[in-house]
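In this section we walk through a basic example: taking a raw amino acid sequence and producing a predicted 3D structure, encoded as discrete structure tokens. The instruction is simple. Fold the sequence below.
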Amino acid sequence: MLAILAACANAVSSVLQRKANLGLPAEDSLSLRLIQALFGRPVWYLGVLGVTAGFLLQAAALSVGELSVVEPILVFELPLTLILASWVFRAPLHRREWSSVAGMTVGLAVMLFCLAPSGGNAQSVDWVVWLVGVGVNVAVVAAAVLWGRTGKVAERPELGGRRAVCFGVAAGCQFGLTAALMKGAVAQGGRGVAAVCTSWQLYAMVVSGIAGMFFLQSAMHAGRLLAAQPGLTLSDPLVSVLWGVVAFHEEVRQGWWLLPAIAGAAAITICVAVLARSPLLGDEERLPPRARRSAVRR
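The resulting token sequence is shown next.
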């Protein structure tokens, strides 16, 4: 329930940030000019408040549940975002969107039931594992950002879509690292509040979360959200599950259980790809006329 509430908070934040991001030039992606422009839009602050609430709910969920369970549930941020956006922008969802939401629900239920993640101990992870894991995670993020920055959008406008994809993947991977650090911090709760406040994971989580937000804002401005959203939605839980299984030694079912689990994951991937093509995630010009008028209001 805490993970579902976190997904709801993130969905509210996504819609509010989308309204704040409309009309800003894509050339400002991955620059401080973008943040300065957003500072002048009050709706952006509400979006940040939603992200903060989502982080707190996610931390509460991770304090009582495994990383491999909590993070895949957050994939529901995408359909929840579409449902909320359909209400805010007055653009109804169609059979394709509702079918994809149902498919994601079934796929996630099958995957979690078949894997049945359990156990794990984030409190006693060796520092070498942390060092290697963080290093690999940061390297993947850096590679995605560098690939996205290749070429000049002003000279080749088609690169905007690739940048959105790359920055979206970078943001998702960064948020996956943030979740792992969050799990490491809340795992210190057994030793008292002082142990949590003095853990290095807590402060590394704050830095990682800020970096993830920066990449997310850049992805929104580099191109259409329909390009950025799939990579963002899928890379976050994938990285988190890898952290849970490899670093925190969370156990999952083996053998034939993996076949339906993979099928469930494939269903989620397909449904995310379908939902990401919804007009509600496209440019302002692709929205229905009534939604377009609502979107331009500040």
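Looking at the output, two observations stand out. Residues 178 and 210 are 9 Å apart (CA to CA). The beta strands are 118-119, 250-251. In the next section we compare this with other chains.
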